[in-house]
Design goal:
With 178 residues, the protein is an alpha+beta fold. The chain has 2 domains: 1-46; 58-174, no CATH class. It has helices spanning 2-45, 166-174, and strands at residues 58-60, 63-65, 73-74, 85-91, 97-105, 110-111, 114-115, 120-128, 154-158, 162-164. The strands form 3 sheets. It has a 5-stranded antiparallel sheet. It has a 3-stranded mixed sheet with strand order 2-1-3, with no helix packed on it. A two-stranded antiparallel ribbon has the order 6-7.
């Protein structure tokens, strides 16, 4: 009997540690979102801080997004806001093709309590391209195998198969948020 009580106490302690970790992670994410929203509100209430020398081609890893000038700027995944950026999600087997639209989030964001590796980003799938519903996600888990199951869930996606929506990037750049 005493052994069972000890096991329950150990389990309670482990659960408490896990709850505390998740709570701290959620608080950090909420704080980052709040700071981003406050910055956005300040930008909207004041005049946009547009740097005329800002480079006009953005690179997200190896993806080039042309703009209307010959200068260049680099967006790092670490600089993507906690609110995410609209993006197009691709798969490359058997050929590279657009399979979904969603949002991509920065590298510093934890995913199920773990940091993603340098080749991955956290995404949320919002809309699947017709005919791609049964495509297999890039990183299969026990809970998630098909793209159709990923709608409105956070999943890991290869960075080289993500393209950030140009119009949304331009909006953020003009607001001085990149």
């Amino acid at each position: 009997m005493k052994h069972m009580e000890q096991e329950r106490e150990i389990e309670r302690q482990q659960n408490k540690i896990e709850i505390d970790r998740v709570r701290d992670e959620m608080r950090a994410e909420l704080k980052a979102r709040d700071e981003f929203l406050q910055k956005l509100m300040r930008q909207m209430n004041g005049t946009p801080n547009v740097d005329d020398q800002r480079e006009k081609t953005m690179t997200v890893d190896s993806v080039q997004i042309p703009r209307q000038s010959s200068t260049t700027s680099t967006i790092q995944f670490e600089n993507i806001s906690p609110l995410g950026l609209r993006s197009r999600l691709y798969l490359d087997h058997p050929t590279r093709r657009l399979v979904a639209h969603g949002s991509v989030y920065g590298q510093g964001v934890l995913f199920h309590g773990k940091h993603l590796n340098g080749a991955q980003a956290r995404v949320s799938v919002k809309r699947i391209i017709s005919g791609e519903e049964n495509s297999v996600v890039p990183y299969v888990t026990d809970e998630l195998k098909m793209l159709v199951s990923s709608i409105d869930n956070y999943i890991a996606w290869p960075r080289n198969l993500i393209e950030v929506d140009e119009s949304y990037e331009v909006f953020l750049v003009k607001r001085g948020l990149f």
